[in-house]
Amino acid sequence: MQQIASPPRTGRLSYQNAIAIALVCLGCIVTSVPAKATEAENEAIFQKKLAPLLRTYCYDCHGESDGEGDLSLAADDSAEKLIQNRGHWMRCLTQIRLGTMPPADADPMPASIRSEMADLIEQLANAVDCVQNPNAGKVALRRLNRAEYRNTIRDLTGVDYAPAEDFPGDDVGYGFDTIGDVLSLPPLLMEKYLDAAESIMGQAIHTPPPPLIFHTQEDPLKLIGAAKWNGKNELTIFSNGTVGLEIDAPFAGNYTVTIVASGTQGGDEPVRAEIRVGKNKKVVEIPETEPTEKAASFQLGRGKRKIEIAFINDAYVAKKYDRNLILHHVEVRGIESERVATTLPDLPASHRVLLFQTPSRDRSFEQAATAVLSRFASRGYRRPVTQYEVSRLVELADSVRSGGGSFEESMQVAMQAVLVSPYFLFRIERPRKPSADGAMPLVSEYELATRISYFLWSSMPDDELLLLAYRDQLRDRTKLFDKVGRMILDARASRFVENFAAQWLQLRNLDNVSPDTRIYRGFDDEIRQAMRTETLMFFSEVMKKSMPIPTLLDADFSYMNEPLAKFYGIDGVRGDEFRRVSLSGTSRGGLLTHASVLTVTSNPTRTSPVKRGKWILDNLLNMPPPPAPPNVPELEKSILAGSLRERMEQHRADPACAACHNMMDPLGFALENFDAVGRYRTRDGKDEIDASGEMPDGTTFRGAEGLRELLANQRKDQFVRCLAEKMLIYALGRGTEYYDKCAIDEIMNTVRAKDYRFAYLIAAIIESDPFQKQGSRE
């Protein structure tokens, strides 16, 4: 994943202090939310105000039985029915606000009437009580997506594990890959998680190489001194005596001499043998008459050693008993003594951090394992682990040790178990019920810490967030927003830029577009990457310096390096490093003139006003056009003639196409001065470019500058509300519903009161009920 460079650090502390102070001052903002009207009041509004307007402007085409497009508005003859069919009324609302309905051939609707009708439909369709415990919504169980998994692994273990090549791709909902409803866990992905956990912990924790093993065995009949004793398949020593063998010990370690022996018993004691290595002696008793293993262990150094086996208690009484030692097999095994294969400075940093305690003379294996696994699992699960959970992990580690594994190996296996636990792979929140008075329950402090960290950092909470949660201080406004202000300025906030902004602006599609380089010379992969970097650094600048949100549309600066500046035709930029560049006096300004946006909304061989217009409606105004009606035949290219604008006008002549294209095309044509890779031009081939546009509601504009003015000023609230809703969807991991209108209204009140500055948008989302509370999916 590309690392997005932060803007220059000049004045960093002052920005941090300003943002922290600004966020804390949110407490000074007092917002008012209108109370929900009663059902009777809603019905009165419908019958007395909205219904007459609908009869005048809508029912001719959308009557009760013959509604065009299979849409009957007259069938919803009460406020209750309108609310029940909220979905198609919200689509109607979009058409009314865009001016595409009523159609051009119908009686004209005055602007004041259009605004009144839109407000009435929204008021009734989104009728929800914003005072008496509005529903906070509920998020489906959320799996970590690939980016979150990689970041969490890096922050937890210190290992940068890239799953992109191995893991299946994440599904996308509502434009983002953070949506709980689509983040499933197929069996293949579970197998990948198991493999990944083993690989990650193998990199994070160093394990010493296994000890060396020595092994030899000898036929007793071939032992030194065996010739004097009787035997065919075994060696019978019938009087006190000694046999032996020599080994060349390859290392210092523990050597075990194992004999398979039996005895002919007699007298008042069993057969005894003495196993000797130099001055070290160990006596073994052999009371058995059948072959049995007996062993003695010795610590030996390197070098040649003689091992002797002596029969030491011979006894004989004529005609009563004869005590003898019988040897069936002799074997010697050695295992190398523990050695330090890696000195402390050579251990990976992750090893030293994770294994901060190890067994010693004063600390048992269980004590060390409990300390290490308690901290690791608590951080991995984003909450304190229970005693039972720790004991299970310690038991698992102990089973590895019992099988001959080292402390490091036992920790590797136990930590792998953490990494494949549902508590790690999923963001689990304990279900709660509303209180007796219907108040929506708050998520826990630890769950709130997790929501904040994955929102801004796409990763687990850091120790400071977890400490605030532990102390029940995360809802202390001063402490919370001081922390959030520092999180925005932290290097990890680049993950928010990468994951939110790149998806919101559809920059991830930039890798998949293929402009025809025979037409658009100068475009290559270096420029492709530079386009992307420009937009992400620009977004990062607006966010980290808490500029007014409309700056995204009308900024007079951007970030470029020399290759991109030359591509744009801008002089005075030298070197490959990106830096802030003034756009004063140029045709550029804001996201709409970024080559990244212009390229992803074009075709390989030409611009696409349709794609660009749809992109603006979707991502800047939150007014996605309806899908194309079914069974509309594609126009034959042979009947289209003239400039691109003329051909598009011919296309819109088809009534089936006009409704949507009347919304999209004017917006797209405003950007026609920029070609399919974002370079400025005044002509398209032999045709002079006409970048004027007129919306169905009569609003006119010309070129990118006029479009910026329209969006950043005349429709500023609509743009900011669109961004707020997109960001709320990304943060919550679910699509917004009608009952989220209360929260979005409050967010907008907060942002509007503070000059639309970016930090207040982030803070207002974190303070909103859907972010702080748990509701239902109704």
How would you describe this structure to a colleague?
By secondary structure, the chain is of the alpha+beta class. Among the domains are: 39-125, no CATH class; 213-336, Jelly Rolls; 498-637 and 645-714, no CATH class. Helix content is 42%, strand content 13%. It is built from 28 helices and 18 strands. Strands 2, 3, 5, 8, 10 and 11 form a six-stranded antiparallel β-sheet that branches. A four-stranded antiparallel β-sheet has the order 4-9-6-7, with no helix packed on it. Strand 10 and strand 11 form a beta hairpin. The longest helix has 20 residues, at 525-544. The chain is elongated, with a radius of gyration of 38 Å. It starts with 11 loop residues before the first helix and ends in a 6-residue tail after the last helix. Residues 1-15 and 27-36 have low confidence and may be disordered.
What's this, in brief?
This protein is of the alpha+beta class. It is built from 28 helices and 18 strands. Strands 2, 3, 5, 8, 10 and 11 form a 6-stranded antiparallel β-sheet that branches. Strands 4-9-6-7 form a 4-stranded antiparallel β-sheet, with no helix packed on it. It has a two-stranded antiparallel sheet with strand order 1-12.
